[in-house]
Amino acid sequence: MPKLKKTAAEMVAEARARITEVETPDLIKMLDDPDVVVVDIRDVRERQRGGYIPGSVHAPRGMVEFWVDPDSPYFKEVFGQEGKRYVFHCASGWRSALTVATLQDMGFDAAHLREGFSTWEAQGGPVEKAES
């Protein structure tokens, strides 16, 4: 196998160095703020297995850039709201770091949940379970 020019870990570290990271207790405090939109980019099966942050928007990782882009045929209005603060999350903060860095490159302002959903419930974050 040829040596990679950059590892996934290096990409995540570079993304984290230039994006806004939100700590879990801080996002918990923001949940009642109508101007905060929490965006879950995990796979639908992850949401079904572990639950999700109540009120979060599900935007699968593979579609985020298209859903955010108003010129895309896949654009979602939830991402066109003025004055909202968007906080993206995945399971551990790796995918969301890369996602937010890419969105910033596109000109879309967002932050991400540093530790992701993996420690959310243990730190007192509410979790809604998917219906069977």
Could you walk me through the main structural features you see in this protein, from its secondary elements to its overall organization?
Helix 3 (44-50) links the parallel strand 2 (36-40) and strand 3 (57-58). This protein has a 5-stranded parallel β-sheet. With 132 residues, it is an alpha/beta fold. The protein has helices at residues 8-18, 24-30, 44-50, 64-68, 94-106, and strands at residues 20-22, 36-40, 57-58, 85-89, 111-113.
Distance between the termini: 43 Å
Poorly predicted runs are none
Q: How much strand content do the residues show?
A: 5-15%
In DSSP terms (H or I, runs of 4 or more residues), the helix count works out at 5
Q: What gross morphology would you assign?
A: globular
Strand order of the largest sheet: 1-5-4-2-3
Alpha carbon gyration radius: 15 Å
Q: What structural class results from the helix and strand content? A: alpha/beta
- Count of distinct strands: 5
Please give the largest β-sheet. 5 strands, parallel
Specify the helix fraction band. Answer: 25-40%
**H-E string:** HEHEHEHEHE
Mean pLDDT: 96
